[in-house]
User: Which sequence fits this backbone?
């Protein structure tokens, strides 16, 4: 599958996951907003009910007091002598029609004749109905006057008191609690009572400032004739948790969506990485074929020339052909050794033959051996072995391969327009030994620098066959340095060269 197809699929699935997360978060916000509005409406309705109940209870208490003071059977005299007193004959309870033209009332004072009708029988029923309606209207007006007197008395008597004298905090708390619970709100609440001009009359004992951002105000005694009104201000400390608690039903879905999204991203990363490893392995096999094909072909040609009896061969010719075969065999052996070295990456119990050795001496030996190859390439090599404490615990073979691979890379990636120059240095930094190999080659771009220690990775050079190799050298170097409890880092600038620095622990006396 092409890389572009993989990225398109990843983009589509990624956008789908993000859209799903957005929809879930939008749904959660909508639920929180809806619950908040519902809560506000419920609280406002409950406060209105509590205020009405408080006013009705005050009226009930006043009426009860008046009735207890004057007696249940006393006339409706509420202490207002200036108010007009209406004497209306109570309405009859029953109307009895006689068989003739006479009818009478039967009430609580007995029966008495009302009137005698001298009219045709067809008009008697209409006349009686009209008289009955007049009597009912008189009774209704009488009862209404009585109620008006009571209402006026309650209004003016209650208004004579100050607002703070009319408030009973305990009763107000009970009214609020009952009204809220009837409407399904059971959250703890705090409240203050204030006069119309803003003066605080009462504050509950456990009052908290938390939650005041969303407070609710209700006017008390709003119909008071003398303007003795006030207000109650209520807030709920746990309102936010209550309104946002509905989001907990959406949170599991969002969490699982995020987990799936992360899992998808990790899967994509592993797929892309595996694809890159596969491509690098294919390059490795391709390059290995070329690396092995050249020495095998050279050995085959030299062997055929030695076996061809038709050609006259002198002792010098045999010596030259033998040298070619020997050189190509060493080259082939070296390539095979590099491949075998990489098998160490799949083993967790690599046994190094560690021994105490002087790093300066070992590096100097490797440089002298490698200097011939540098000279043949038209370059120079300098050493600055300035480390005073150079004793380390190392495996001689692997330590030699580390230095050799770094210098071999410098030769491979040299510049054609500049004479190759290598510099190998050692110095001490605290209790550590530092080793550097620096060249003036083509350098490495920043994007490639972070991957040069990956197995099978080779830095692009335009033509992938102009520099032979398997992409194993630096991976092997990093692995061996870490097994020696050291570190390696690389710095490079395109066109200026590359610097590799190795840090190893020294032997403590």
Assistant:
């Amino acid at each position: 599958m092409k890389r572009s197809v993989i990225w398109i699929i990843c983009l589509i699935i990624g956008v789908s996951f993000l859209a799903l997360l957005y929809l879930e978060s939008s749904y959660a916000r909508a639920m929180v907003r809806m619950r908040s509005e519902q809560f506000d409406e419920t609280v406002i309705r409950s406060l209105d009910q509590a205020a009405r109940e408080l006013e009705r209870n005050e009226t009930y208490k006043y009426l009860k007091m008046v009735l207890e003071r004057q007696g249940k059977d006393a006339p409706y005299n509420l202490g207002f002598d200036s108010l007009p007193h209406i004497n209306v004959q109570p309405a009859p309870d029953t109307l009895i029609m006689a068989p003739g033209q006479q009818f009478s009332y039967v009430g609580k004072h007995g029966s008495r004749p009302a009137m005698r009708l001298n009219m045709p029988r067809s008009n008697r029923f209409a006349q009686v109905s009209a008289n009955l309606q007049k009597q009912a209207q008189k009774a209704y007006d009488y009862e209404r006057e009585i109620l008006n007197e009571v209402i006026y008395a309650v209004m003016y008597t209650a208004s004579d008191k100050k607002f703070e004298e009319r408030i009973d905090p305990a009763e107000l708390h009970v009214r609020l609690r009952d009204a809220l619970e009837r409407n399904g709100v059971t959250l703890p609440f705090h409240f203050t009572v204030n006069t119309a001009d803003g003066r605080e009359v009462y504050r509950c004992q456990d009052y908290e400032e938390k939650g005041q951002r969303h407070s609710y105000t209700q006017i008390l005694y709003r119909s008071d004739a003398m303007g003795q009104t006030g207000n109650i201000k209520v807030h709920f400390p746990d309102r936010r948790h209550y309104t946002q608690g509905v989001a907990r039903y959406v949170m599991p879905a969002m969490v699982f969506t995020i987990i799936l999204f992360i899992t998808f991203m990790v899967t994509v990363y592993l797929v892309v990485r595996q694809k890159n490893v596969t491509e690098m392995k294919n390059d490795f096999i391709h390059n290995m074929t070329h690396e092995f094909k050249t020495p095998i072909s050279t050995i085959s040609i030299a062997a055929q020339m030695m076996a061809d009896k038709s050609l006259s061969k002198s002792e010098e010719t045999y010596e030259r052909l033998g040298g070619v075969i020997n050189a190509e065999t060493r080259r082939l052996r070296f390539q095979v050794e590099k491949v075998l070295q990489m098998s160490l990456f799949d083993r967790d119990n690599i046994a190094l033959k560690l021994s105490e050795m002087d790093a300066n001496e070992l590096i100097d030996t490797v440089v002298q051996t490698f200097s011939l190859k540098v000279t043949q390439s038209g370059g120079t090599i300098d050493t600055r072995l300035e480390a005073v404490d150079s004793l380390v615990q190392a495996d001689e073979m692997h330590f030699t391969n580390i230095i050799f691979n770094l210098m071999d890379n410098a030769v491979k990636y040299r510049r054609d327009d500049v004479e190759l120059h290598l510099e190998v240095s050692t110095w001490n930094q605290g209790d550590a030994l530092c080793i550097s190999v620096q060249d003036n080659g083509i350098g490495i771009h920043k994007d490639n620098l972070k991957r040069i220690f990956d197995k099978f990775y080779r830095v692009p050079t335009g033509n992938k066959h102009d520099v032979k190799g398997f992409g194993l050298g630096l991976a092997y170097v990093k692995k061996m340095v870490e097994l020696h409890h050291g570190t390696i880092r690389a710095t490079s600038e395109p066109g200026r060269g590359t610097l590799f620095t190795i840090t190893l622990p020294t032997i403590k006396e």
